[in-house]
Amino acid sequence: MTCPNTPKATFRPLSALQHPREVIRQFTPNWFAATMGTGVLALALASLPVQIPGMYAVAEGLWLFNIGLFILFSVLYGARWVLYFDEARRIFGHSTVSMFFGTIPMGLATIINGFLLFGVARWGSGMVQVAEVLWWLDVAMSLAFGVMIPYMMFTRQEHSIDQMTAVWLLPVVAAEVAAASGGQLAPHLSDTVAQFHVLITSYVLWAFSVPVAFSILTILMLRMALHKLPHESMAASSWLALGPIGTGALGLLLLGADAPAIFAANGFTGTGEVAEGLGLIAGIALWGFGLWWIVMAVLITHRYYRAGIPFNLGWWGFTFPLGVYSLATLRLGKVLHLTFFDVAGCVLVALLVLMWLIVGKRTVIGAYRGELFVSPCIAGLKK
């Protein structure tokens, strides 16, 4: 018998919101983390060392879907700045949400790589120019957010060591993601000078990001030793530490692969071979460091899981770091011709698929109900 006072379940879309326009008012950059996870999955599926019928088509479909997501999110977030400017600018004072500005260029980077991997094959070499223009835009955003957000941390925001999480990495790591993307772009360019410019810029971006990211990782380890794990709502942040490690390794491997030819074409014979060798050794070393973090992340996640993890958009933090580490693993297998890395890469991609399906399903349900449209920056303000 049904209790008459029991509220009936509603299937009305956006039922958790007082008005549909709250989707715009409550929209935050956190949503772009979904484009990061979806984009890296597309790239990982297309990079598998085994030929699976239909897999390339699935990967390309995910990439096209990701373009649609990125455009939709850009329109919604742009509309928020136009319609609710005073509320939107409050993000710069928020110690957590502001970090997610870094997800915008990182999501775009996966689309740029897709233009090179899928777009050229489908629409021709003209897509290289599209990728090049978008890459320089991505570089500009990565550099801007990589400086602006830390500056806000130092001058306007309130932070404490016991409240610190790995989300501090997000605005900083965007530059090294752009660097890895530059490693993909450079060999596609026909002009040797343009190749050289992209290659050198990418190495600068790598150095702009990685040392700062590793400094944050050092503080993060101290924070967890002194104050233990963050709140359950930040459970996925334990995987974020894998991001700069995996991307750092992948970036050096990609940049080193074509460094000999590009340096030689610009009068620096011998320099490229050094860059290639150092990139390979450093890539292997970073992969080993990432192995420690991924084991630690699994153990931490298991501990959170037993206590119960509330779903939020931060769950997309499970996907992108795992994705770039998978790509670095597959790249090592391709370069070293070692079956171990090929098998390990396939296992990691399979885990990535599982995580993407779980997080994607929960995101669709939460978005339909309107439960995920929450902006902490304006909590407490009158509607």
UniProtKB/TrEMBL annotation:
One of its GO terms (cellular component) is plasma membrane. The chain crosses the membrane at residues 31-50, 62-85, 97-121, 133-154, 166-183, 203-226, 238-257, 277-301, 313-332, 338-359. GO terms for molecular function: sulfite transmembrane transporter activity. Its main location: membrane. It is a multi-pass membrane protein. Keywords: Cell membrane, Membrane, Transmembrane, Transmembrane helix, Transport. This is C4-dicarboxylate ABC transporter. It comes from Pseudomonas weihenstephanensis.
